[in-house]
Amino acid sequence: MRYFLELSYNGTAYHGWQNQPNAVSVQEVIEKGLSTILGENTAIQGAGRTDAGVHASQMFAHFDTDLPVNETDLMYKLNSFLPKDIAIRNLFKVKPEAHSRFDALSRTYLYRIALSKNVFNFDSAYYVKQPLDVYKMNEASKILLQYKDFQCFSKSKTDVKTYYCDVVQAQWFFKEGELHFVVKANRFLRNMVRAIVGTLVNIGMGKIEVDDLHQIIQSKNRGEAGFSVPAHALYLTKIEYPEDIRL
Questions:
Q1: Over the stretch 4-54, which tens digit does the pLDDT of each residue have?
Q2: Which of 67, 169, 174, 212 has its C-alpha lying 20 to 30 A from 21's C-alpha?
Q3: Pairing state of beta strands 55-64 and 178-185?
Q4: pTM summary value
């Protein structure tokens, strides 16, 4: 049978989601827990790959097993095994062909910017000292919805076959003394969100103009876009699937 895990994690201590040869990943820790509890080597496939230090308030992964599984019991045991920075929120049976990565309809990310020095969010938000023109940042965000090819925001060394992404939401808003950016698309490239945010911050600082974003995207050149903002303020917040994926 195939099962989906819904989980959250604080990515501070991990070298991203995906297994790494010489570093600890979120995937590795969960696989170790599942394999120990089920008594057989159990691999999981995640809905995507978050970079080192990036967090997820909602992530999905799937695994296969022929063993009889009590979903509630397995979730309890797995949460007991896992460290405090990884939590299983749900575990449910899905169709045999269901795939956590390829069946995802959309993914949503949140980036948090602290507008003042705060001892309680320095490790969860990116502190920007300079004043930001949020109106211009939102005007530039609308431009993202006009394009599909986002090669300019992708890491140069990547194995993707296409740089096309369908961005359907991109906006800034204030929340509890912070400036938040929410972006939703069917898929994202490596480093894409952090590069977008860095570029929009440059616009907010007045280093480049709103209309310059057209030329940056059309250039397909990572060197034309802005800096990559720090990973610790980025959160994968939502992944959507077809309603009929469950059994």
A1: 999 999 999 999 999 999 999 999 999 999 999 999 999 999 999 999 999
A2: 67
A3: unpaired
A4: 0.96
